[in-house]
Protein 1
Amino acid sequence: MIDELEIGGAQNQILLLGRAMLAMGCEVSVAYFREKGAVLVPQLQSAGFFTLPLHKQRRLDLAFLIRLIKLLYSNIDSKILSFGYTANFWTRIAAFLLLGRKLKIVSCVRDHIYIPICSKPTERILIWLERLLARNSLQIVANSNAAARSLIKRGVGHKNNFIVIPNGVEPQAFSQRSEARERLQNVLHLGKGPIIGCMSRLVSVKDHATLVRAAKIVVHTVPDARILIVGEGPERKRIEDLRSNLNLDKHIFLPGSLPGHLYLAGFDIAVLQSLTEGMPNFILEAMATEVPVVASSVGAIPEMLENGKLGILFPVGDHQALAEGILSIIKTPAEARSRAAAALSKTKSMQPEKLAKRYLSLFN
């Protein structure tokens, strides 16, 4: 169960876990609430999933709720994984309205905010509802200890309410470095210097301005450095304007969206400078491709990078510290390779097959 099937972290995890479960002999269906932007439907179907649109039109949609109840009733013996606040909320509401029919639901928390931030009275009501509806879940899974702590701090639950299962990643799904590097050279055309790359949507929370300002410092020291900002979104114009204002048009490239599994291994450094994060797949994928990481110290990132042992952390919004982190990797490549190798080793415990078994065991 998920609210939408646009490209995103939770959707990627559904694809990885679902494929692993199919390989284990399970039948996998993905029910999604909203059809707008559901670009992943063909990919899920080609992987062997059944896709079940529920046509949710409004925030409060009685017809949608009836369809959801009917779906759950007709799959009363199924194992149900719901991803994210909206899917968790409505799946549990429907389960409650089935009047005692016990469903096997595992609810998944994918971010640190989870319950929408709103006025205090409304927030208290939503927290109360969440705690009440949580009784309809066999288990609640957070994808990081940081996410679990965030919810506990807000009073959503006790520490004993949460099980932590991290996001999964498939190292074998990525191109080899030589192949990815050749593709990147075709995108960048010019230069042979180090490639510093960020893959994320071009939205304000990703704080690309900090990366652009850091690039000014980096290219002053390493003139042939190239910065690749991969993705699309509403912040493109602002990023381009800042690039021009800082005279970085020859150093910063915005090629639009590129498939990470074909290009990521070609980076020399992976950067993520977000203001807030959950457990970002980009960092996990960089670890799996043995690319050194520099990332802002938010969300689950310190946990993923073991507080700097597996990558360099910097304070949110500090472009000077970001530049120093990038230059440190360029100047001390042996140390960077050692951290990256340790990061790769960590991802071996995050293979989807292992995580799928952990999820399925929660239903016993």
Protein 2
Amino acid sequence: MTRVSLGRDVPSILVGAADFLVQEGINSYLVGGYIRDTLLGRATRDIDIAVAEAAPQVAQKLAEALHGRYVLLDEANGIARVVVAAGEAAGESQWHLDLSTIRGSIEADLSHRDFTIDAMAIDLKLGEDSSASLIDPFQGKRDLEKRLIRAVGDTAFEDDPARLIRAVRLAAGYGFTIEEETEALLSKQSQLIRQVAGERVREELCRILASRNTARFLFYLDRLGLLTAIIPELVATKGVEQPREHYWDVFHHSIETVAALERLLNREKEAELLAIAPHLVPHIEGFEEEIGIGVTRAVLMKLAALLHDIAKPQTKTMEADGRARFLGHTKEGASIAGDILQRLRFSNREIGMVQKMIEAHLRLWQMGGDHGIPTRRAIYRYFRDTGDVSIDIMFLTLADFLATQGPNLDLTEWRRHCGLMEYVLSQREEDEALVRPPKLLDGDDLMKILGLKPGPKVGELLEAVREAQGAGEIATREEALAFAQRRLAEDKPAEKVV
């Protein structure tokens, strides 16, 4: 039997857990992802342990011994978690020890696992050098060396259909290949993914979206039948032709927009293109901000890119000259995307951010005034309406343009598009009043000085004042009052009852 070493720097949390379980006389084994990642030389804070007794009860005792927190994950299948904070930076150093109940022997238990690279175990009776015998009945170490993802058995996906998308997530995250027979089985049973709870699908999908080759794996998910099983609304976008400036149909354009966005965010192939827009580059690092657990701004941007034209099939009309139009597809697309993300159990904030990106992805092109230069008022309204996704939309808009022209990219047009983004962003950076005008008046002022009663009119006037500030038309309290009085006088005739 192969002996493996867990290395010289075995985490104290794992040592403490192993010591406790041995002292309690509980047969226990390190299993799954921790072994896989250790053999690959990857750091991980997730430790899976299989125990020969009821895992929830063992986990309660272990949590107490390690001064951790007990979480029951799955009572029916006997799975529980111990969350332990290590060191001073507790919030950043949480360890998850997931305990499961062994079914029969350890070899029999491993036979119920998903993939061979996760079906290895190590007895937690570790030697002094932190080495132990590797229990590997399905040749997981060999597949790990070959960088292969192979199902443990023919019923792997029937036993847990979430493994269908997990296989692709592992391939995306590790740069592995799904073994041919496993791939064929996955493709044959892809529709089983519809049985999986939205939360589990979301978690795996977000991890694919967080990879550096998302677009490639979205096409792969589609080839396997998984993408449209998860998002059936995408089926209608296939084969929908677009105006002549578009290189791809709606479906391919959508995934190519994800690819273009990745190129911009990764800055690998697009360094020369982004050099045209220096104001945008510093914002790229901000897209790693975590909005939800495992959900960054970049992940939400890729979702918006995938779904930005989701409503084009139902809004398509043909003009007399044979040109296709998609009037209203941004607003309807935002609504459809909201339904999709609710089904996948994204948070309200995450859904709102994606919807705003989709609804406003053409906004910047529609802002142009004389000579294509937006007015201050248009720029103010853009930042007011798009809020905390204003920069995200700029990158989505540029990715949309790159995916529209594809290999036929016109560099002159690209410079013009980047120039627009640069202008809008530079105006914001030069004048913060475009985003957050200083308060000149409040509702009490309007009611006291102008004799207004509480109601929607007060809010409308205040927003009109802020907009005039953003446009540079007023700058003082006196000017603001005079503006409000004029606006009120202009509105009065329309309020008269005839």
